[in-house]
Amino acid sequence: MTTWTVTAQRELEVHLAGLRLSLAGSGADPDEVLEDVRRHVAEEATAARLPVVTEADVRRFLSRVAPLAPLASFRTGEPSRSEPSAAPRPELPNNPADPPPPPRMPWWQRLLILFFGVVVPVVALVFEAMKRACAQEFFDPLPTFWHGLLVGLVPVANALGLVSPAAIGANGRRVRWLLNSAAIGVAAVYAVPFLPLMPIALLGAIFGFGLLPLAPLVGLTCALNLRRRMAREEPAMTPRLRRQGWAALVAPVLLLIGFVVPTAWTRHQAGIAVLGDSTRSDNAVKWLRRWGNHDVLLRECYGYRPGLWNDLMPVHLPAELAQQLYFRVTGQPFNAVTPPTTAWSRRNRGWVNEMEVGGVEWDSALGSEAVAGRVRGLSMVSSRLDAMADAGAVWSYVEWTLEFRNDHEWSQREARAQIQLPPGGVVSRLTLWVNGEEREAAFAGRSQVREAYQQIAVQERRDPVLVTTSGPDRVLMQCFPVPPRGGTMKVRLGITSPLALQGNGEAAMVWPSFLERNFGQSRSLTHGVWLDAAQEVAGSPEGLSAVRDDRDRVGWHGQWTDAALGEPGRAIVLKRDPSSIEHWAPDRRGSGGGHVRQRIVSQASPPVRRVAVVVEASLGMEGFLGEIAGALERLPAGPEIGVFVVHDGVIRLPGDGRGTDAVSALRQVRCDGGQDSVPGLETAWDWAAGGAGSAVIWIHGSNPVLLRPMESLRQRFERQRGASTPRLWDLPIRHGPNRVIEKLDGLDAIASIPRLGSLASDLERWMRVIDGREPRWDLVRERVEGHSPDSSAESMASTHVTRLWALGEVRRLGQARNLAAATALAATHQLVTPYSGAVVLETKQQYQQTGLQPVDPGTVPVVPEPGVGWLLLVGVLALLVRRRAQYVARPPERS
Amino acid sequence: MGDFFDNWTVQVRKGLIELCVLNALAERERYGYELVKMLVEIPGLGITEGTLYPLLSRLRLQGLVDTRLEESPEGPARKYYTLSDDGRTLRTQMLEYLDQLNRGAGILRRRGGNA
What is residue A528's three-state secondary structure? Predict the structure, then answer.
């Protein structure tokens, strides 16, 4: 039952009296109209379920049903434009079809809409974009710039809704209508996920910050309020415009759903791939390769929240598993691509800066043994490789000088890189420039130097550089801190290596290169390469130019890109005298002042009768399978060849690997994602071990992520019996880190095939050697106590030969578990081995503090400046060697 | 340009408003409040609640609609409007004329192109 107040009844009667007057001459029956209006007002009150109708209610009803001004102008004939009106309409003439303008919005209502519909959403948007408070605590409402743009529609539309319709014209009103529609759609989408936060928001509203989670809801309320008003204000609200309004409302909703669906689907599949059983996991990975949003996976790798609505999904991927999955799906490690970014993270500090363009802000691997992803601001600004090689004594020495620069505004940086050494190489010198002065390293036990580095670099933030091994023929270099705001740090690594003998008449020099690094470099930056060789170079080295000095000595120099440095074709082949087979070098560091004798011996390998070829069909190998198939096809008859393709499992190709069926099948294999070669290697080992005299050759790309434990594979190679059990030959096609090989470090059964040319030539050369058709030329070094070669012979070989002997001895001692002796020998000969490392500290006090002793600068190897007469000396010595070899005149040893 | 269009739409609506009322009642009889709410919601017509009751009164006086009162369980008695025979005849004439007008306008539109 509705009750009318007295004032309400009086208000109605007064109004009707006025209405009666205005209806005079309208052609309508005033009594009837008044009765109709009275009835209508009563209906409104009933519909509104008002228990008590007040004066204000009556005014509100009457403002719609019977405003006096329009009725006063109601005419059945032509509208009168000149008739005075109590509420003149600025744009439209008075006529029967004209809607009466809604009463002007009260000032307090305008103020409320301005605050809640414009100010609060703007503050919420800017605050979240800058501080990412919601993204950190609950979910990310602004995962992309486009989300921010859509959210920005709400305050814009609300602000426009407050503008007088007369001020913006007909077109402006249409735009306003459409914007309002879009804003309602956006605000509604955002209001839903914020609903669970309402209790917190309401509590927080007391302290002011609760308005931010309330922003979508209050923005939506304001937009709806304005929409009702606009619908009344818009006289030309055509059906088309209404349809457009609905379209404008639905479009951002669909857009936001469009953002959500691929992300949700990708995360769902990722959950299956990581946590599902083997079959479901493989299927999910296939789906993700084809349809998955790789950017979403990348965000998971960094633990970045996936964004609006997706945070509410019960899918949680541990970052480590996400990183493995990213590799399986894309074929590249997560830290090899630019980290995901949003427009909001560019200028922010703190957590969100993980997403900085150009690298991560927070270096979580600082001081660790992982290279990890690129860090922002750090780059390599110069690189030069100065090398000398002696093909006669079959050694080379390269000094690689690197300079790093940190352009970060405030953070010190650690430069880390995994470096591929030439086969059999060892780091024999490490130098750091401190205040422009060169400081040489201390060589000691691996754990001792790492501890010193951790203490001095990471804790005390001073200036050390550390080099340790990180797998066969691999070292990890790390230096810290590279100062911010353009600070630089300069280091030098000296690398002693044997040359790779090709027969007895040629020896190849392979350059060191980066496998992985956490710093960037300019695209225009190249490595300055310089080689002084005592012997003639075979052919014309790619990318190098010959320079002759005034004594007609030849040096080779060039500028190589980073990619070129690791290419197989960049190896330098030097000619050598085949009769030069024995060299002596003094061992000044050993007790008793002995000598090291190096002999070049040919050894006939036990014939291999079964070769298992494991071909990894990861995405990085795309384009190489045809070349591999061609190389296998051209292999001469000999051992039985089985081809195992690793492609989401292991596939044994039919027949012999050289046969048409296998070659054809290999050519048809499609490369996908990142593959796990370990099962393939295990299967191949099992097959190869079934026959006496066998080998496993692994042809692969980069393996930056280890997808399963290695113990089962390692056990096979550790437990092998005799020379007839399979040996693993590593043949990388693509340059990059290889976690599998790293885990097999220290095993005798693991060897690499030197990459000196094309795949076919390298493979064929290797095949000729292992099936016994060609002798294998090896360098055999031994320490001879008390033996004193003639003075000319002693001076003929460099102490690099002694270092290479020491390296072999350290490995032997290590395998015999005599670790103390191995470490001591490595430290004595200043070598970085699996048991020792090198560290440069800044001050004597730091050395004392850590119990280390830097090496005497007079004992380190050096590369003479070009033009110094060492080449002439080496040439003369080579002649003497030849004469001595002719005098000794004994046939090569065979074992 | 905008003002011209606004004025033109006013003229068009003014000519169509009675026809819309007749059409609304051609389907079935409706009571005033219902009729008003329905017509107000029609997009583009631009009718407001305040303009309809005088119009309905005029149509009744002209014999185009009939009315009757009926008690309502929820509120005041409802006044139902229904088309008279004259109203139906007039509606038919108006619709035929409007169709003719549309066809003519359509010919001109096709000649002028759809753009």
Answer: strand
| E strand segments, A703-841 | 727-732, 750-752, 776-784, 836-840
Which class in CATH covers the domain with range A378-583? mainly beta
- Whole-structure pTM value: 0.65
Strands A437-440 and A426-434 come out as: antiparallel
Q: Say how far apart CA B105 and CA A447 lie, in whole Å.
A: 94
Tell me the pLDDT tens digit for each residue of B26-64. Answer: 989 998 888 888 888 888 777 777 778 888 988 988 889
Burial of A365 (0-12, 13-18, 19+ CB in 10 A): middle
A&B contacts, CB < 8 Å? 128
Token pair in block for residue A104:
């002007």
pLDDT given at position A823: 93
What angle (nearest 5°) sits at the alpha carbon of residue A434, between those of residues A430 and A438? 50
- Judged by DSSP in three states, A493 sits in strand
Distance CA A210, CA A215 (A): 9
Q: With an 8 Å Cβ cutoff, are B44 and A27 in contact?
A: no
Q: What are the domain boundaries of chain A?
A: 3-72, 107-259, 261-355, 378-583, 605-774
A244 burial type by CB count under 10 A (0-12 exposed, 13-18 middle, 19+ buried): middle
CB distance A508 to A754 below 8 Å:
yes
Cβ <8 Å between A28 and B2: no
pLDDT of A311 over the 60 cut:
no
Chain A within 8 Å of B3 (Cβ-Cβ)? yes
| Chain B contact for A235 (CB, 8 A cutoff) | yes
Domains A378-583 and A605-774 share a fold: no
What are the domain boundaries of chain B?
Answer: 2-112
> pLDDT averaged over chain A?
80
Residues 80-99 (A) with a CB less than 8 A from some CB of B: 91-93, 95-99
Tell me the C-alpha distance between A830 and A785, whole Å. Answer: 21
- Taking residue B51's Cβ as centre, other Cβ atoms within 10 Å add up to 26
Per-residue model confidence (pLDDT) at position A534: 80
Phi, psi of A744 (to 5 degrees): -95, 15
Mean pLDDT (whole number) for A448-456: 85
Q: Is B107 on the interface with A (CB under 8 A)?
A: no
Q: Tell me how many helices (H) and strands (E) chain A has.
A: 28, 29
- Using an 8 Å Cβ cutoff, are A532 and A555 in contact? yes
Residues A235 and B46 sit within 8 Å (Cβ to Cβ) = yes
CA count, 13 A, side-chain hemisphere, A194: 24
Architecture of domain A605-774: 3-Layer(aba) Sandwich (3.40)
Least confident window among A501-505, A728-732, A772-776: A772-776
Lowest mean pLDDT among A585-594, A616-625, A860-869: A860-869
User: Any chain B CB within 8 A of the CB of A164?
Assistant: no
Instruction: Tell the residue number behind the tokens 């990894």, with chain if given.
Output: A616
Instruction: Report how far residue A576's alpha carbon sits from residue A393's, in angstroms, rounded to the nearest whole number.
Output: 9
**Burial letters A439-450, b for 16+ CB under 10 A, else e:** bbbbbbbbebbb
Q: Who has greater pLDDT, A201 or A619?
A: A619
Three-state secondary-structure class, residue A332: coil
Closest to A567 (Cα-Cα) out of A304, A749, A381, A757 = A757
Q: Is B41 at the interface with chain A, CB within 8 A? A: no
In the predicted model, is pLDDT for residue A98 greater than 50? no
Fold held by B2-112: Arc Repressor Mutant, subunit A (1.10.10)
Residue A732, SS3 per DSSP: strand
Nearest-angstrom CA–CA distance, A28 and A834: 106
Mean pLDDT within A816-830:
91
DSSP symbols for A257-276: HHHHHHHHHHHHHHHHHHHS
**Complex confidence, ipTM:** 0.88
Average pLDDT, integer, range A339-359: 45
For residue B76 the two structure tokens come to 């005041």
